[in-house]
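Input record (Table S2, row 371):
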Amino acid sequence: MEQVETVIVGAGVIGLAIARYLAVRGQEVLILEAEGAVGRHTSTRNSQVIHAGIYYPRGSAQQVLCLKGRQMLYDYCASRHVGHRRIGKLTVARKSAEVDQLHALAAQGRANGVDDLSVISAAALAEREPAVVGAGAMLSPSSGIVDAPGLMLSLLGEAEAGGAMLALNARFLRARKERGRFLLEVGGAIEVTIGCKRLVNAAALGAWGVASGIDGMRVDSIPPCNLAKGNYFSIPGPSPFSALIYPMPKVGSLGIHSVQDLGGGVRFGPDMHWVDVVDYSVDPEFLPQFEAEIRSYWPGLPEGVLRPDMAGIRPRIWGFGSAKREFEFQDSSVHGVAGLVQLFGFESPGLTACLAIAEHVGELLGKGDDQ
Ligand SMILES: Cc1cc2nc3c(=O)[nH]c(=O)nc-3n(C[C@H](O)[C@H](O)[C@H](O)COP(=O)(O)OP(=O)(O)OC[C@H]3O[C@@H](n4cnc5c(N)ncnc54)[C@H](O)[C@@H]3O)c2cc1C
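Output record (flavin-adenine dinucleotide complex):
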């Protein structure tokens, strides 16, 4: 039977960032990935925005890890030549009644430590972004975009250089504890039993399935599983904007905003629909709603150019009447299994914060040594 120190389930941006964090510190790591390649789910089905950290409740894990992770990510991308651009973001007040909300948002952002925000007038907005119409906007210069697939390849490369191994087509099925070690059953292309001292559940949409396969878990520690789908539509040709353009945020969604890619193209999204299954097809029936939302800040959107593009699904531990919850790290104090760290509900800003999340998981695993 193969024996390793730490197994990480899930090769998305978070699992890979954790693998790199541990491997560069000399720890033995095996990453199990159910798919035939890394990052096939949430990590490549998102807006690829480096968030500044404006909206999250002060002191929440999202706020703290976003702020720390954003700087870590900019530094990492610059030093490893991972594609990224600090293009800035404009949150647009579409009516003058929304301008007060812009000031409130800017105050919240500053209280969160985002110290470069400013509210600009309609005229200044028109000068910066001639295609956009609004009564004013909040400018966030430290928001940007990142090449998520490139980031994952870089994280994987460093993890492998540190000795980490990646097993593709390797689905975690179940685990039990024997004499202080986990025995993992793995199915897929390889069917093996693997022994390990520490186990990290970074399976995102698959995290609930992984948790329910671990013997000895306090079942009531597994949070609710809600899937919030976000669709994107795109237009051909270059982006008409130079910065990211966002409407005012709503509960549960930042609104249908523009997302620029590093090649200069643009798509719009995501919207928000609760779903029961992981299905990434984009229903063209949402097109009129997208057109209306986009035209509310870009009246010049030409007729008939918007096309269904792609979709992603937010793994959520809240919704359906329950209050908004931040993402959750669970160690044995929560679920009762020593040596196990689980991550639930890692929606946005999980990409921005991946390096800070990895550091936090590394610290939780370190504490587990005493158990
Ligand atoms: C629509 C949308 C927009 C977003 N926009 C942004 C944004 O602009 N900026 C930002 O910072 N964040 C954004 N996010 C959040 C960000 O994408 C996620 O927080 C992040 O990608 C989560 O990474 P992950 O590694 O946890 O998940 P994933 O990338 O989903 O990785 C989990 C992996 O686990 C594997 N897996 C599952 N079950 C098993 C099993 N049993 N055995 C083995 N492997 C398994 C899966 O195949 C998958 O590869 C967005 C998310 C969505 C959905």
